[in-house]
Amino acid sequence: MGILEDKGRARLFYKYLSRIYDRINPFIWTESMRDDAIDRFDVDADDRVLDVGCGTGFATQALVEETDDVYGLDQSPHQLERALGKLGDDDRVEFVLGDAERLPYETDSFDKVWSSGSIEYWPEPVQTLREIRRVCRPGGTVLIVGPNEPKSRIGRALANAIMLFYGEAEADRMFEAAGFEEVEHWTDGPSHKPDVAVISMARVPE
């Protein structure tokens, strides 16, 4: 387990990173990448959508342009404070301080669940994917964005000492273990690193 897969360390990390997060994030997770993923996510205007690990609201800002019923959850009060600064007056979104492993929502509460840049911090990713499946209605769609594993063995070892990095094969294993169906994966990234992210989309069984 990487050092930032510990929740306390991750919160401390984001206490400081939140100050510059919106300046460095576009070098890794661009607006174009986000918008392409949201297009494939195919949100309907009446969908109820949850953004798990919403951070400073980068994806949430785009999701509220698709539907008027969006919920954002993050375990970092500092990241959430930034999100509230952007969208706190927007009645289309409701933000909650909470843990992805224990989502404070009823079973089958959402039509779609999105999470970008959060899975790499989850101590138990399969269990958290099961929790996400719980709150997403049968037939609903889940989309998860995480960091692609480095190609070299040394790079993978260094990366995984920090947090979870994984490839499409591992993503497939995790989603299957969590009970999802119709799972597809693809990679994306900025021009300088076009495969930096693994994006997985799956359906909750009926």
Distance between the amino and carboxyl termini: 33 Å
Structural class: alpha/beta
Q: Summarize the amount of helix as a percent range.
A: 25-40%
Q: Largest sheet, if any?
A: 7 strands, mixed
Instruction: State the helix count.
Output: 8
Strand order of the largest sheet: 3-2-1-4-5-7-6
Low-confidence stretches are: none
Shape: globular
What string gives the helices and strands in order? HHHEHEHEEHEHHEE
Beta percentage is 15-25%
Rg, alpha carbons: 16 Å
Number of strands: 7
Mean pLDDT: 95
Compact overview of the structure:
By secondary structure, the protein is an alpha/beta fold. 35% of the residues lie in helices and 23% in strands. The protein contains 8 helices and 7 strands.
Description:
The chain is α/β, with parallel strands linked by helices and about 210 residues long. The chain is about 35% helix and about 25% strand. The chain contains 8 helices and 7 strands. A 7-stranded mixed beta sheet has the order 3-2-1-4-5-7-6, sandwiched between helices. Strand 2, helix 5 (about 75-85) and strand 3 (about 95) form a beta-alpha-beta unit. The longest helix is centred in the first third of the chain and has 11 residues, at about 5-15. The radius of gyration is 16 Å and the shape is globular. The chain starts with 6 loop residues before the first helix and ends with a strand.
Q: Which properties best describe this structure?
A:
206 residues, alpha/beta, seven-stranded mixed sheet, 8 helices, 35% helix, 23% strand, globular
